[in-house]
Design goal:
Structural class of chain A: alpha+beta
Number of helices of chain B: 17
CATH class of the largest domain in chain B: Alpha Beta
Number of strands of chain B: 9
Radius of gyration of chain A: 18 Å
Helix content of chain B: 40-55%
Oligomer: heterodimer
Distance between the termini of chain B: 45 Å
CATH superfamily of the largest domain in chain A: Glutaredoxin
Number of domains of chain A: 2
Strand content of chain A: 5-15%
Number of domains of chain B: 3
Distance between the termini of chain A: 24 Å
Order of helices and strands of chain B: HHHHEHHEHEEHEHHEEHEHEHHHHH
Number of helices of chain A: 7
CATH topology of the largest domain in chain B: Rossmann fold
Chain lengths: 158, 425
């Protein structure tokens, strides 16, 4: 069930958009901010709220790589696999991450801490190879630097 | 050397505040346009400045604006959209412009809005650009507070509302027509042209979609004039400055604002410091992932739209991606095609089916599974997936690095197939 707060936020956003349909992506992002991902149930409820069919809203949800239709870990690692990062060591970054957290791209660790996903060019090509963890950007990655970054996310309360 | 886009940026990386921007002459163009220029005069000045689109296609911005019908001919709303969905691999210029000087973009958008008499403007920003988003949010609030935006801008009666729209991933969303679909809440599939967005864009209304760097140039053109802007360029066929980026194994990867038409060698060696020790230049993409490879025999080419076309490539976004001899050219092209295949929206068959097929064939060659005839098969696909068979430029753009790689690195492809292995592995 969407909470009262979520419903209000979605409707306010729809109001600002001026068109309910145009608010679809915004609504999905609101849901995801509160819940981490968009379940079938919340998708159906959100669609109803916006007077769309669930299929209409799902066609939008499934298009965008950063709308998650499956549960993700508490921290999402987005590894840039575009060409400048590839030249500067993307393969090594991916393999080091794999070895450290024990999962491949598209997977979530058993403790639910990390999900690792590929991402299109992060626009940090002067600091390649690069990745994001949640909303934070990290560049000039080396195995040592990756270990430090992972440690910071492993020691938190999450 | 003048650097209108970047001079005055703070060395600490923080965005310029409204006060700081005003001290640099910020919003003077906006005042001038609103109080002393007719909308058509703004368009004419941009036209005379010959400002070409910095998003990759190089279409003249003023001409684009002039296609929007006047309110007398077509009543109703019209829109300005700043395309800030920067995702062309190798490109990181709009990030800098928005992070460090967000008001410059806002003023450029405002001038465009006035020129086409739009009252609503959107910044279409990719989700991953969190720092630019925060800079823009603050700048938008400051601009509203100072009455540069709002219901009655500077007391002139002109109304302008500006909204930041944050997307949620996928390269194809930055395609001009796909941007409009996302803003309408649809899947980011492109639309057929014509009608062009300037006639029927957002919600079927006249819309100008311009790149961030393009719009950021506009305040300077209006403040200092078209003649001044044309004079910034080193070549008569082009105008202004350009943000050039270099990434790959060079000594100093980075971004520089230089006169349009600066020779490639100067950017690569003078600014980026040349190749790192122990590696040699094999080739480069001069303007992002969707441009044709050039090699060391092209270093004297000037980096402007016409010169690069003559050299067999494109200026694109001006983002130079350097391939060195420690990396496999077939592997690099495979990386590029796998990217385009993944990012295809799936609407047009040559793109949806052809790109994955091309990527798989390249992977097979890279892994030593290539067969005689594969290079010719790739050749054929660069034609079948080329211009004219798809709604947008994603797939034809994807073929540019492949086609040129088959030309410049053909022996590397043949060797992979002959030896049944990648020599770099």
């Amino acid at each position: 069930m969407l909470t009262e707060g979520e419903r209000r936020e979605i409707l306010e956003d729809a109001e600002r958009s001026g068109h309910r349909r145009a608010a679809g992506l915004g609504a999905l992002k609101i849901v995801q901010r509160h819940r981490g991902w968009v379940s079938d149930e919340t998708l159906r409820e959100t669609a109803k709220l916006l007077q769309m069919t669930p299929d209409e809203l799902d066609s939008v949800a499934t298009f965008f790589s950063l709308i998650f239709r499956k549960p993700v870990g508490r921290h999402v690692i987005l590894v840039c696999d575009s060409v400048s990062c590839w030249i500067m060591g993307y393969d090594e970054v991916r393999e080091h991450l794999k070895a450290r957290i024990g999962i491949g791209l598209g997977e979530t660790t058993a403790d639910g801490r990390f999900t690792m996903l590929p991402i299109a060019c992060l626009g940090a090509c002067d600091r390649a190879p690069a990745m994001m963890v949640d909303e934070e950007l990290y560049g000039n990655l080396t195995p040592e630097k990756i270990d430090e970054i992972l440690a910071a996310y492993s020691e938190d309360a999450g | 050397m003048e650097k209108p886009l970047t001079e005055g940026m703070r060395p600490d990386g923080q965005p310029l505040s409204l006060k700081e921007y005003e001290r640099l002459g910020g919003y003077q163009a906006w005042r001038k346009a609103l109080t002393a220029m007719a909308p058509g005069e703004v368009t004419d000045e941009v036209k005379k400045a010959d400002l070409r689109g910095r998003g990759g296609a190089g279409f003249p911005a003023g001409e684009k604006w002039s296609y929007v019908p006047s309110p007398e001919d077509v009543a109703g709303p019209r829109y300005v959209v700043a395309n800030a969905d920067e995702m062309e691999p190798g490109t990181f210029k709009d990030r800098l412009l928005m992070e460090r000087n967000p008001h410059q973009l806002i003023e450029g958008m405002a001038l465009c809005a006035y020129a086409i008499q739009a009252n609503v403007a959107y910044i279409f920003l990719r989700w991953e650009y969190g720092k630019p988003a925060r800079a823009l949010e603050r700048a938008l609030a400051e601009a509203c507070e100072a009455n540069y935006l709002g219901r009655n801008v500077l007391g002139t009666g002109f109304r302008l509302e500006m909204r930041l729209h944050v997307s949620a991933g996928r390269y194809v969303c930055g395609e001009a027509m796909a941007v409009l679909n996302v803003l309408e809440g649809r899947r980011a599939i492109p639309r057929t042209k014509p009608p062009h967005p300037t006639i029927s864009g957002l919600r079927g209304k006249p819309t100008v979609v311009n790149n961030v760097e393009t719009l950021s140039n506009v305040p300077h053109i209006i403040r200092k004039g078209a003649e001044w802007f044309r004079g910034l360029s080193l070549v008569p066929s082009d105008s202004g400055t350009k943000l050039y980026g270099v990434s790959g194994r060079v000594r100093r990867p980075g971004l520089w604002e230089l006169p349009m038409g600066t020779p490639l060698r100067e950017i690569l060696e003078g600014c980026a410091g040349g190749m790192q020790d122990g590696c040699r230049l094999r080739g480069l993409l001069p303007g992002g992932a969707s441009t044709e490879f050039l090699t060391d025999q092209h270093l004297s080419v000037r980096m402007d739209f016409d010169s690069l076309l003559t050299a067999g490539s494109r200026l694109g976004t001006g983002a130079v991606i350097v391939l060195d001899d420690t990396k496999c050219p077939v592997g690099m092209v495979h990386n590029l095609e796998a990217f385009f295949a993944r990012e295809s929206c799936g609407w047009c068959t040559p793109c949806r089916d052809g790109l994955p097929w091309t990527a798989q064939l390249l992977q097979a060659i890279e892994e030593g599974q290539g067969r005689p005839g594969d290079v010719e098969r790739l050749d054929l696909h660069t034609r079948l997936i080329g211009p004219g068979f798809t709604f947008c430029y994603l797939a034809p753009g994807a073929m540019e690095p492949l086609r040129s790689a088959l030309k410049w690195f053909r022996e590397d492809f043949e060797r992979h197939i002959r030896d049944r292995r990648c020599p770099w592995r």
